[in-house]
Design goal:
It is a single chain. The chain is of the alpha+beta class and about 70 residues long. Helix content is about 25%, strand content about 35%. The strands form two sheets. The protein has a five-stranded mixed beta sheet. The protein has a two-stranded antiparallel sheet with strand order 2-5. A hairpin with a 2-residue loop joins strand 3 (about 40) and strand 4 (about 45). Helix 1 packs across helix 2 (about 25-35). The longest helix is centred in the middle third of the chain and has 9 residues, at about 25-35. It is globular.
Length: about 70
């Protein structure tokens, strides 16, 4: 599992995928979320602007990423 450090919360889901380099652009991040390719805490998430917080686990493309507030 990868750890993603965030400095504030909440953060929009697509922004995490974009700014962490998991996907190359915000548009692509929004697309894969809307198509149901991203899970949040074990549940498929299709809301691009879903707010994520410390401790949430994002899964995409077989990888897991846990948010850690610093």
């Amino acid at each position: 599992m990868h750890i993603i450090e965030i400095t504030r919360e909440p953060v929009e889901l697509y922004k995490v995928l974009k700014f962490e380099g998991i996907l190359p652009s915000g548009g692509e991040a929004k697309h894969v979320i809307a198509e149901g390719f991203v899970s949040l805490n074990g549940v498929t998430e299709t809301r691009k602007r879903k707010k994520v917080v410390n401790g949430d686990v994002i899964e995409f493309n077989g990888e897991e990423y846990q948010l850690n507030l610093v």
